[in-house]
Amino acid sequence: MNLKGRVALITGASSGIGWQTALAFAEKGARLAVTARSADKLHELADLIRKKGGECFVAPADVTDADSVRQAAELVGNHYARIDILVNNAGFGVFKPVLEMDMQTVEEMMNVNYFGMVRFIQAVVPIMIRQNFGHVVNVASLAGFMAAPTHGAYAATKFAVIGLSEALREEVRPQGILVSTVNPGPIDTPFFERADLNHIPPIARRFMLKPDKVAQSIVRAIEQEIPQVVIPGGMVPVIKIKALMPNLFARGTGKLYRRKP
Ligand SMILES: NC(=O)c1ccc[n+]([C@@H]2O[C@H](COP(=O)([O-])OP(=O)(O)OC[C@H]3O[C@@H](n4cnc5c(N)ncnc54)[C@H](OP(=O)(O)O)[C@@H]3O)[C@@H](O)[C@H]2O)c1
């Protein structure tokens, strides 16, 4: 898909990966709709895009609130009369051993990272079906392929996203809709204001990427119709090794993550 003139709705656009993706899409000539809870930050982003000659509609929403999600999708659909791209990106992480994780945080993470995504898919994909055209990009994570110690509750939300995406991809393919997952490793964003960076091993911290790299990968996933993107690409063989030797791999990551920071 050529992004020029396409209507793209991005969740979690008030910060980090979502913010950079909105800017990258605007560069390509897409017409933007941005959502998150922080309306002030969304307006700041929209002003920035408009100053550069782009188009940006602000539709604040809390992904944990079904009515708020439905309203946002409706506002965007009415404003542009179509939605071509949905980037499901809103999310957060808390890293703690499973036995120390309070249930409220476990449920909140699943509610935002997974149920929030389902809510936006159910609100937007019917619009795409009416158009017989669309692309859904779900931002999962490397944690959706491998769950290191202290990442259990967060990884569960991302395993869920990958499973959901796999099924949805084949359900909506006949209606001309594509589904991709984009799976980043550690990225330097405000995500780590809540997630404890000490639970990422030093080697991974050293190779931490900036969010604009993920934004470029999302653009590529859409332009080149790629179902699954891993960032950095060097992690693809690691995922394959894990699939071939899961027990050995788990023990290796266990050792790596138990090492003192
Ligand atoms: N950074 C990483 O290392 C990394 C790695 C792999 C995957 N990811 C994934 O990438 C996505 C974006 O993360 P990021 O790194 O860009 O983090 P970020 O800078 O903290 O951005 C998170 C975004 O999610 C939004 N959000 C959180 N809760 C929400 C809610 N209840 N309703 C609506 N929006 C909500 C936030 O907006 P408001 O607070 O304004 O609502 C914000 O825009 C997440 O799904 C994350 O799991 C991140």
Automatic annotation (TrEMBL):
Name all Ketoreductase domain ranges: 6-190
Please give a single GO biological process term from the UniProt record. bile acid metabolic process
Identify the InterPro entries for this entry. KR_dom, NAD(P)-bd_dom_sf, Sc_DH/Rdtase_CS, SDR_fam
Oxidoreductase keyword on record: yes
Q: Which UniProt keywords apply?
A: Oxidoreductase
Q: Annotated Gene Ontology MF terms?
A: oxidoreductase activity
Per the record, what is one GO cellular component?
Answer: membrane
Keyword set includes Cytoplasm: no
Sorted alphabetically, which SUPFAM superfamilies does this protein's record hold? NAD(P)-binding Rossmann-fold domains
Instruction: Identify its protein family.
Output: Belongs to the short-chain dehydrogenases/reductases (SDR) family.
What is the protein named? Oxidoreductase
Organism, as annotated: Effusibacillus dendaii
